[in-house]
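#struct-help
A.M.: can someone run this one for me? Single chain, 185 residues.
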Amino acid sequence: MGTEKARMLRGELYRDNDPELVAERRACQVLLDRFNATRSGEDSERRAILTKLLGAIGDGSWIMPRFQCDYGHLITLGRNSFLNYDAIVMDCAPVVIGDDVSIGPRAQLLTALHPMQDHELRRQRWETAAPITIGDNVWLGGGVIVCAGVTIGSNAVVGAGSVVTKDLPAQVFAAGNPCRIIRTL
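D.P.: on it. Structure tokens below:
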């Protein structure tokens, strides 16, 4: 493992144009191109591709095309979980999705962060990443965006179009931009 990849996985500043990281993203894109080109009913082909692509995929879980991610192997999908159409998972850090999770269409799980204060570092393409964890039996409505470093507790529901910038505890309904707890479930 090269220096930039190790830095990325430790959550430190790294350069995404490192040749090793570029090669990994290209290999991921080849699998995604194959996955996204599958036709309705080609469930076994989709499953075989996802098994190669993801770090883990639990029994009974599936993802609908069009699906996009950076590396794939940093994504763990539990049992009986579902990502609907047009999901984007920027997995520059681990993304752990629990069992029985439902993620609506056009959801985005975004682990990448860019320097806000240091404009020169940002110009030079330095970035960091922070993991995302989604507990069991969570439902993310359509168009939800989950930001870097966020953990969503089990049995939580996040309303459509919400932008989750901070951790959410278990068993709550939360919604809005920024997302806030509406009530306990």
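A.M.: thanks! Residues 147 and 181 are 16 Å apart (CA to CA).
D.P.: also worth noting: The longest strand covers residues 179-184.
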